[in-house]
Automatic annotation (TrEMBL), chain A:
InterPro entries: ABC_transp_permease (IPR001851). It is found in: Cell membrane. Keywords: Cell membrane, Membrane, Transmembrane, Transmembrane helix. One of its GO terms (cellular component) is plasma membrane. GO terms for molecular function: transmembrane transporter activity. It is a multi-pass membrane protein. It comes from Kumtagia ephedrae. The keyword Transmembrane helix applies. The chain crosses the membrane at residues 25-46, 58-77, 84-101, 107-127, 139-158, 178-199, 231-250, 310-326. This is Sugar ABC transporter permease.
From TrEMBL, chain B:
CDD domains: ABC_Carb_Monos_I, ABC_Carb_Monos_II. Residues 3-239, 253-496 form the ABC transporter domain. This is Sugar ABC transporter ATP-binding protein. It holds the Pfam family ABC_tran. It is found in: Cell membrane. GO terms for molecular function: ATP binding; ATP hydrolysis activity. Keywords: ATP-binding, Cell membrane, Membrane, Nucleotide-binding, Repeat, Sugar transport, Translocase, Transport. It comes from Kumtagia ephedrae.
Amino acid sequence: MTTLDTTTPAQTPAKRSSLIWISRYGTLVAFLALIAFNMAVTPNFLSWQTLNVNLTQVATIVIVAVGMTLVIATGGIDLSVGSLMAISGALAPMIFLGTIYPIPSPALAVTLAFIVPVVVAGALGWFNGFLITRWSIQPIVATLVLFIAGRGIAQVMTNGNLQVFRNDAFQFIALGRVFGIPTQVIIMAVVVALAAFVIRRTGFGRQIIAVGGNEKAARLSGIPAVRVKRLVYVVSGALAGIAGLVVVARNSASDANLVGLGMELDAIAAVAVGGTLLTGGRAYVLGTLLGACVIQLVRYTLLANGVPDAAALVVKAGLIVAAVFIQQRAERG
Amino acid sequence: MLLSMKAIDKSFSGVRVLNAASLEVEPGEVMALVGQNGAGKSTMIKILTGAYSRDAGSVTFQGREVHFSSTADSQSAGIATIYQEINLAPNRTVAENIFLAREPRTAFGLVDRRKMRAEARAVLKRFNLDIDVERPLENFGAATRQMVAIARGVTQNAKLVIMDEATSSLDEREVAVLFETVRTLKRDGVATIFISHRLDELYAICDRVTVMRDGRTVAVSAMKDIKKLELVRTMLGKELTAFTAAQRNREEADGATLVEAKNLSAGVRVRDVSLAIGKGEIAGLAGLLGSGRTETARLIYAADRRDGGTLSVGGRQTAYAQPADAIADGIGFVSEDRKVEGIVPEMSVRENLTLAILPRLQKSGIVDRARQQEIVERYIKALGVKCASPEQPIRELSGGNQQKVLLARWLCMNPRLLIVDEPTRGIDVGAKAEILKLLRGLADEGLSVLMISSELEELIAAADHVTVLSDGRSVARIPAAELSEERLMVAMAHQDGEAA
C-alpha cells in the first residue's frame, strides 16, 4: 500500500550544507575557540598544571564515554555505568585490604584488585546485554535495573561504610606518572586509540555500526546481532569498572554513595556533543573525546573566571541541546 | 446510495496515487475492495476516513457531501474502521474498550461502570459473543478483539464498517465467526467495505466488488458475475513493460537438484509448500499478495523458523537456526524491501557490499582493507554500479544501483543459491532488464536462483519453471515450455478443475 508521507519543508541547500559542516566540525571549532578564549582571558592558562588538572578531571568521563559511544552506536544506551563504577570502586579496596579474604602476597592482592572488579563490571554489563537481547527489553529500561540496584549492591557490600586506604601500588593507576604523564591520562589515551581502531578497522567495529544502522539488514547479512549487542555492553561495563578504580584510587577512599554518581549523564553528554547520533549507526570515538574536553573546558573556563559551578551546569545543558539540535537539523533532507 | 466517492484525485509530492478513482456502497451491502500493492486502496480508505485530504473529487455519505478532517470526524458521522492491527487499548477491559473516550456518565459526571458493563454485554450478545467484559482485552484472541472493535463501531451507530485486511491474521474458524458478525451487521442495514487478499473470502461474504489498479477504479461488478480468473486478470491488468526479455537458453538442466523443500509450514501464512530447484536453474515463485511467497523464502533462509516440513540443500537435510547458518551453507538472500531489510543507509557502498563477506575478510579480527578494496572494485565494475566512489553513502544511489550493490553483497560470497525477492521492484526499466540478464548469466554459470516476482512477464522471461502459491500452499509447478500469463493466472486464482 502506498505510504508516502508529506515531506518536511525543504531547507535551502546552502543552509543545509552549512549545518552539516557545523555538525561535523562544530565540536572541534568550539574546542579551539575555548582554548583561544582562555589564552586571552584566563591567567596562567598555558601551563602544565592547567593541562594536568583538566586532563585528569576528564579522564574518567572519557573512559566511560568511549564505552557509551559503542553502546549508542548500536542504537542502545547504558544508564548503569555510574553504579558499576561504584561496585568496582567498592570491590577493589575490599580485595587489597583483605576484607573479603586475606591475601598474603601484596603483589597478588593488588593484581587481583585491578582484575576482579573490572571482570565483575564486565559481567554485569553482559547481564545488561542479556536482558536487552533475550527479552527485547528497551535498553533504557534494562540498564535502569542496574542503575538502581548496582549502587545498592555496592552499599551492601561495604555496609554503607567509607573505605579509606593508602596503597601506592594500587593508587598508581590514578596518582602515578609515566614520563611525567598521569597514568589515568595514559589509560584514557589507550582506551580512545583502541576503540577508534576497533571501530574503523575491525570486523567487530563494522558489525557494531551495521547493527545500529539497520539491524534487520545486518541480521539478514549473517551478522550475529545478539552477540554484537551483548559485547558492547560488556565493554561498556568493563570500562566503567576501570573508571571506578581510577576514581577511588584518586580519592584514597571509596564511598559507594558517591563513586560514579551522575556519570551516565556526563558520558551521554560527551557522546552527544561529540557528534555520535543517539539513534545509532555511527560512532565518533575521537568526537566523544573532544566532546568531553569541550564540556570540561567550559566548566573550567567558568570556574576560573569566578562563575559558580551551579551556573556551569546550566551551560553544560545548553551545550547538549545545541549539539543535538544541530545534528537533527543536519540530518533532515 | 450510502456512500459515493467520485473522481477522487490524490498526489503525494508530485506522484499521483489516485486518478479519478471512485467507490460506491449501498446500505447493508458488503463491498469488496481489491487491487495489487500500490493500487490505491489504502489511500482511498484514508481519504474516506479523513486521515488524508483529497485533491479533487467528491465524497457523499448518507446523502450529504462530507469533508472529514480527521478519523474522529468520520467516526462520529458513522464510519468505523477495523484494521489488522486494531487501534484498541489491549490492557483495558472489553467494556472499557467498547466505550473508550465516550464512557457513560453518572449524574455526578463519573464513569457509570454498571451501565457500561450492561451495554457492552448487550451489544456483544447481538454478535453471539458471550465473554467476560471485565477482563482485559489482551486475554482474548485476534478474532474476539476484532469483534470488540466492531462492537465499538456499532455502539457509535456506524452505518459503514471498513475491514482493512481484518482476516489476515485469523485462522479459518475465526474467519467464520467474523463473517457471522458481518452478516449480523448486514441484517441491521450496516454496510461493510471488505479489503482482503484472500479471494475465496470475497466470494464467501461479499455482494459486489470494486477493483482498483494504478490509482484508478477499473471495474465494479456483482461478485457472482465475475469469475476468479477474470478478477485476477483485472487486478493485475495488462501492463506493457518495456524491458527486453533476457535471452533464454534453457534446455532442461542436467537434472541435479540443489534445493528440495517439502511441506514447509509456519503459522497461518505458509501452510504447505513444496518446491525444488535444480543446479543452474532460475526457479520462479509466483502468487498473489499474501499467498506466502516472501514467507516461504524467509523459511528457506532461516530468517524465520519453520513449524514443519523438510529442507535439503545439496542432498543434505538442513537445520539452519539463523541466516548466518544458511549463508555458511552458500545461500544468499536479497530482500524485497531494500530500505528496511537491505541497505545500511549511512554506510558506504564499499561497506554495504562487503557486509556479508566481512568474516572472511578478517585476519585476527582486523579487516583486510586491500582485499576488501579489490572485491569492491571488481564487483562495481562487473555489475556496472554507478557511484561517485566506493566511499559514497549507499543512500545517495538510485534504486537500481542499490539493488546491484545488494546483489554483489551475495555474489562476492560465491553462493550456491541466491534468493531474490522482487528483484526489480521500484527500479527503472533499463536497470530491470540488466538485473534479469545478470541473473540469467549467473544461472548459466551454475548458480541456482529462486526468484519471487509479482510481474508475470518477468517470471515468464527469466524463469526455468515457476512454482505457484495460493493461500500458503504450493498449487502448481509450471515448466518453462508451458509458461504464459494465462496459465499463471489460472494457477494463482487456484480454481477447482483448473484448465491447462
